[in-house]
Here is the input.
Amino acid sequence: MPGILGIISKSQAETNVTRINNMVNCMLHEPFYTHGTYTNERLGVYAGWICHKDSFCDCLPIYNEKKNIILLFFGEDFAEPDTCNFLKSKNHQFKKINASYIVHTYEEKGINCLADLNGWFSGLLVDLQKNIIILFNDRFGMQKIFYHEGKDAFYFASEAKALLKICPELRSLNTQGVAELLSCACVLENRTLFRDIYLLPCASAWIFEGNSNVRRTKYFKPTEWENQPWLEKDFFYEKLREKFQKILKKYLRSNQKIGISLTGGLDTRMIMANMDLPEGKFPCYTFGGMYRDSFDVKIARKIAAVKGQTHQTIVVGKDFLDNFPHWAEKTVYVTDGSLNVT
Here is the structure.
């Protein structure tokens, strides 16, 4: 799984450069990933990234025009057209099809720009004007950031194994985290399976400045949505449908080819029913078994035909089963134990 990683420390510059390279190599699970590093010894930030070629975030590091604000961003943002129009009116230079505009939203609005981002993401902002570093993630913490606070450094990464690679003293299990995984199918309260490694809380904007401790701020609280006025049922439905159709269009804008994963579920039927698709442009696929068509395959094939799209059944067959131990082990390893053999 691609992502970002880093060390924030004003000591051991040469050692930190070596550690960052080791962390990047630890997360390079596929040969088609792109990757790179960014360092600033003055601020004590050593960072790296891994991403899919031509993806939304394959433009790192991102600089503003004066090159005094630097952004590493992983994930996606489905911005309103007004955002890019506003930035163009301010004479900023960027590409609408990737994350390059986000650094300019920070330039114009400061840390408040994080509340405007819409998607699953994590990122690192380096502001050379204010001499601060900001580590942030999305509202729901879907793009995980693992971190460890050492005596002389703060370590973070999208995969826990990158921290375990350079900090061997962390290679032991957190017994409470293991118990929670076995009983609740997940680890609770930003703990992880590993001792002294934690998850960045959702909607975080942690600010590192000078030699002082990190300021653990949040740019969003659920109560902002929970305390909104109640809406009448029919009015709510109309607004939901209107917004749903508007947002879906954003998901069809990409540098990469888009395929649609279909099942027999309500979610994919809602998506297809509310998208205006040019005939044959978005190939659809469904995972199926070796012996007969599943309900998912039968329904998905009909949905694709109604929308004028091709459909392919990807058979989970003998080759997969023969290599199941390999795929199971890789799944557990890549996901840091958050997914299991099922």
DSSP finds eleven helices and 15 strands in the chain. The longest strand covers residues 33-40. Residues 205 and 217 are 5 Å apart (CA to CA).
